[in-house]
Amino acid sequence: MNEQPQTPDAPAEPSRRRWLGTAGKILGLVAAAEFAGVAVAFLWPRRSRRDEEASATVTCGPVDEFTPHSVTAFPAGRFYLVRLADGGFLALSRTCTHLGCTVPWDEAKGRFVCPCHASAFDIAGDVLSPPAPRALDLHPVRIENGVVRVDSGRAIQRQRFELSQEVYL
Amino acid sequence: MTARHRKRHPVADPLNTPREEHRREAAVPSSPVAAPAPAATVRNGSDKKRGGFANLILHIHPRQVPVAALRLDRTLGLGGAAVALFFVLVATGVLLLFAYEPSPASAYGSIQALRRDVLFGDFIRNIHHWSGNLLLVVTVLHLLRVFFTGAFRPPRALNWIVGLALLLLGVASNFTGYLLPWDQLAYWAVTISTGMLDYLPLAGRWLQTLVRRGPDIGPATLATFFALHIAILPILTVFLMMFHFWQVRKAGGVILPTADPAGPRPAMMPVSPHLTRREGAAALALLAAVCLLAALSDAPLEAQANPGMSPNPAKAPWYFMGLQELLIHFHPVMAVFVLPLLAVAVLVALPYLRYDGPPSGRWFHSPRGALLARVAAGVALAVTPLAILADEWLPGLRTLLPRAPELLLDGVLPLALLVAVGAATFALLRHRGFSLHEIVQAFGAAGVVMLLVLTTIGIFCRGQGMALVWPWAGHLPPP
Fold first, then answer.
1. Which residue among B213, B312, B406 places its CB closest to the CB of A115?
2. Minimal Cα distance from A45: which residue of B?
3. Using a CB-CB distance cutoff of 8 angstroms, which residues of chain A are in contact with residue B194?
4. What fold, for B68-254+268-311?
5. CATH architecture, domain defined by A49-165
6. Is B129 exposed, middle or buried (0-12, 13-18, 19+ CB in 10 A)?
7. Residues of B with Cβ-Cβ distance to A155 under 8 angstroms
8. What is the mean pLDDT of residues B69-95?
9. Which helix (H) or strand (E) holds B49?
10. What predicted TM-score, i.e. pTM, was given to this entire model?
11. Fewer CB within 10 Å, N or C, chain A?
């Protein structure tokens, strides 16, 4: 085994010592990872389910208040309630899917135009011109007793507009 | 490293002091009792004479430096300027802490109150603002000085990387400070910049949520940025700065043109007062310039942040404008992830390439290297704006390949083109007999000019809806 000459000052490390050293290092790394995990968990956004549900549902009003092919802004919920020409409802997030700017509705041009990088979306939220990579996010819409309610706490990502996304009375 | 250090040590010791130093310290008798350690004796004696200030300085500087290292064109005083600005930032930042309230409800009002009610409130805020921005400019110039004098190569390789980390900390400090006034400028610049994180593959959305501490910029974001800005980043910066200085000393000080080994030893000068006075004068001149700037020009403060209304155009902070400009031309994954990652990888790998010989320590390595760098910079200066205009006005690949995915057209193909052109240029220059150092330097010059052009166009030539406009039209009020 020991073919190499060894000086008395530097004996081969006993395997037990080496094992303990390695184990110590691994435990140290685990401890460091745990502390990092604790730090990330500490910094992770706090979320209280009850608060969210209570504040996130926005009551928009009776269905008849919204004429077909109209866009109504709800600043408190940070969304637009859209009634398409066929009478279906969509709640569009006002956050641009490109970099998160707020997109205003341009009534004259009939499209949403992002002021930051000139992305444009049609009335159903579909991308008309890039750089936006996908259609505006949706919020779930419920119609109860003829009143439109939107859960603004939940955003649904989508690639493009599909008829199945519309909600009818 | 260690062997080198040990070998150098006796040379740096006062035993070897040239004549001037001997004359100054002739009055200090060196005790024969301490003969085994004469160096220590001399140091003790001179320490008493020098006093506290010089002793402190001599922890950062050696006792003497080569006369050649004192010349202004060696360093342009840029590293020292960065240190001076850091101290100005700490001093003014501490004052601002007494006025600022870090919550969305009161942040903007506290800045307004500072400007309205506090004597010199505006002045201190302006100094902080201008020093913070100047610090980034000075740090980048310092990096360029180090690059173009060849000081990024071993034995200074580790310090080059430490310097890159310090630049990163500088950018992070500036960026976290950007949000604190909670005005429209701050809110949307940070929205856009953190919006870019969403495009990082795999962990992008997770990282964005962690940075914003929620889906949008809100109270938690402000609290996070405030803690980073006033505590975590400055502390990290101080530690890394100390390490940076120590590494400079360990490498034997500022890089100098390599002397003829057979020639006479370079002339030396004591650091105190010859270097310390120069540094003091430079720092005071810089302070005067910053005060003048602060007196003449106010730091911006727009209307209070309004999450419901993005300003048009909404722009990232100026130092991210190059990135935002890339984002207009390339696929987001490319602009936000691939290109920056490539740039960082190249910068980190730079010292460890196999160069043909040691760095000459001269500006631009050699006259031929200087010429090549100038040509590369000129080409980049001409090609970058043309490429931007071509991308804006020419129909592009989309007409040829109408059904190809975005990532291919705006990402993979342009990258392949860039790499191919780069590789061909490299092969050609190598064939022409340029050394690797000269070629790397030329690419560096071209890269810097490209970034500069992109940033300039992003800041001055992007108007409403990020459309290209003339710089003088960009600041007109919307019609």
1. B312
2. B213
3. 100
4. Cytochrome Bc1 Complex; Chain C (1.20.810)
5. 3-layer Sandwich (2.102)
6. buried
7. 215
8. 90
9. helix B38-60
10. 0.81
11. N
